[in-house]
């Protein structure tokens, strides 16, 4: 059973950099999966931030791309998020998630977020 | 980018009711549509993938349908534990994942 656990500071100052790590257990980060970050501001919906493959390939939400860096550490079986120049609008619960998926009978692959961390609240405040 | 629009944003229903939530994509996404359930203070949980396939362990009262741009999540007979917020998510784009804004299902 794959498990994901987020860690990092719960409080970040405005204009600073938010840094979080997601530790993966019960599976290898070098498996054929993408690994994502998703956030949820208090009382609001889910926003996909970006994803990384074990090769280091990344995709980012265009609305955050200029401020986001996602990296992977295969030796520690974990991946990380850095979000720079944060403001109060970046206050949210941050989740890491595995993008697994399934093949249908025709061989088409359907990605989905099948494993999630419990989430960690990051507050941006002075 | 592909936009996902859910309706309604909130819904009141009673135990035993049949409930339908709709999700519309801004362009065709074939069957690349997933549904998640989220309870307060918890991470989202995958319910349905590929528009209509039930994730292992999810009760059969949940079902999904649709393809192209219009999709539905149906709960055939609401149970007390089903009161939560539901999100759709498109996985058609290989570059950007997008969620709907959510539908909060409340007890009437």
Question: How would you describe this structure to a colleague?
Answer:
The complex is a heterodimer of chains A (about 130) and B (about 110). Chain A is mainly beta. Helices cover about 0% and strands about 55% of the residues of chain A. Chain A is built from no helices and eleven strands. Chain A has strands at about 5, 10, 20-25, 35-40, 45-50, 60, 70-75, 80-85, 90-105, 110-115, 120-125. In chain A, strands 2, 4, 5, 6, 9, 10 and 11 form a seven-stranded mixed β-sheet that branches. A four-stranded antiparallel β-sheet of chain A has the order 1-3-8-7, with no helix packed on it. In chain A, a hairpin with a 6-residue loop joins β4 and β5 (about 45-50). In chain A, about 35% of the residues are buried. Chain B is mainly β and about 110 residues long. Chain B is about 0% helix and about 50% strand. Chain B is built from no helices and eleven strands. In chain B, the strands form two sheets. In chain B, strands 2, 4, 5, 6, 9, 10 and 11 form a seven-stranded mixed β-sheet that branches. Chain B has a four-stranded antiparallel β-sheet with strand order 1-3-8-7, with no helix packed on it. In chain B, a hairpin with a 2-residue loop joins β7 (about 60-65) and β8. The radius of gyration of chain B is 13 Å and the shape is globular. The mean pLDDT of chain B is about 95. The interface of A and B includes residues 61, 62 and 118 of A.
Provide the residue-averaged pLDDT of chain A.
96
Helix content of chain A: under 10%
The major pleated sheet of chain B works out as:
7 strands, mixed
| Poorly predicted ranges of chain A | none
Determine the N-to-C terminus distance of chain B.
Answer: 36 Å
- The portion of residues forming beta strands of chain A comes to over 45%
Quickly give the structural class of chain B: mainly beta
Sheet of most strands of chain A: 7 strands, mixed
Look at the helices and sheets of chain A and give the structural class: mainly beta
Oligomer: heterodimer
- The total count of helices of chain B amounts to 0
H/E topology pattern of chain B? EEEEEEEEEEE
Strand fraction of chain B: over 45%
Number of helices of chain A: 0
Low-confidence stretches of chain B: none
Average of pLDDT of chain B: 96
Shape of chain B: globular
Rounded to the nearest angstrom, the radius of gyration of chain A is 15 Å
